[in-house]
Specification:
single chain; alpha/beta; 8 strands; eight-stranded mixed β-sheet
């Protein structure tokens, strides 16, 4: 089985619609794909309706968190999307995205960049506006060559010249809320130093003690030594280890299935989840 547990659609900051995403996942030879858009579940219905035969969909979300001033992302799998407390927190994060993006655009303009809200809104379309959309605008304007090059201290990285904060969950609260909704939590790309400051390993140990289920180890932003270190840490803390593409369509260079999760780990995630269940494809409709 080939299992990719971290992907994004146009419901947040990917470039594939949810329907395109699941069809492309099947085309890439995946058996299981997780839809983990940022702080939203809006893509679920379209992805399920289009799900090809032979592909299983894991519903999820990537939750925006912050611990001691350091941003981090928490992958949540197979939770009840209707659970009210977690739904309320996701809504608070989403509602703060537009004013945050407008604040970053203002900072960029003050730095002499001719970016506008209209340009960023066009790029975001129906998705929840976020930094990748602003980064894409910078690429369009020739300010940076790639989206990744916008996530530096010069521009949009945490603490960067054009960075602005938004409402984010405390990760301990995120773990509690996801568990209360019957879901499973995995710390996304915990050592992606290219993105900015990362939480220390001591904090990961505290999160594990609070009920964190796993950490994402095999990821494009982790080099070989980092992956080995994280595997050792996971073994010491009794955490599951996952691998994922963090696919964003054409917005990033990673490919569907570039990194995958061991079937036994996937099985354990599904065993722990009680809020929702993986959806087997039955041959989705076109669209």
């Amino acid at each position: 089985m080939r299992i990719d547990l971290h992907t994004h659609s146009t419901a947040s900051d990917g470039t594939d619609t949810p329907a395109e995403l699941v069809r492309n996942a099947a085309g890439a030879g995946l058996d299981v794909v997780a839809l983990t858009d940022h702080d939203t579940v809006r893509g679920y219905a379209e992805a399920i309706a289009a799900l090809p035969a032979g592909l299983t969909l894991v519903t999820g979300a990537e939750l925006s968190c912050r611990l001691d001033g350091v941003g981090l992302h928490m992958l949540a799998y197979l939770f009840d999307p209707e659970e009210p407390e977690l739904a309320r927190e996701r809504e608070l994060v989403r509602d703060d995205r537009t004013p945050r993006a407008q604040a970053m655009i203002g900072k960029l303009q003050a730095l002499g960049v001719d970016v506008t809200w209209e340009q960023v809104a066009r790029i975001a379309g129906d998705g929840s506006v976020g930094r990748p959309h602003i980064a894409t605008a910078l690429v369009e304007l020739g300010v940076v060559p790639t989206v990744s090059d916008a996530f530096t201290p010069d521009w949009l990285a945490d603490g960067g010249r054009a960075y602005a904060q938004k409402h984010e969950l405390d990760p301990f609260d995120a773990i509690r809320l996801v568990k209360a909704a019957g879901g499973v939590t995995v710390f996304a790309h915990p050592a992606a130093v290219k993105r900015g400051e990362c939480v220390p390993e001591a904090a990961i140990a505290e999160l594990a003690a609070a009920g964190l289920d796993g950490i994402e180890v095999d990821h494009m932003d982790h080099d070989t030594d980092t992956r080995a270190r994280l595997r050792g840490l996971a073994a010491d803390l009794g955490l599951l280890t996952t691998g994922s593409s963090d696919y964003h369509g054409s917005r990033k260079t990673c490919r569907l299935g570039e990194y995958t999760t061991d079937p036994e780990i996937y099985g354990e995630i599904t065993r722990r989840a009680t809020g929702a269940f993986p959806v087997p494809g039955a041959g989705g409709r076109e669209g």
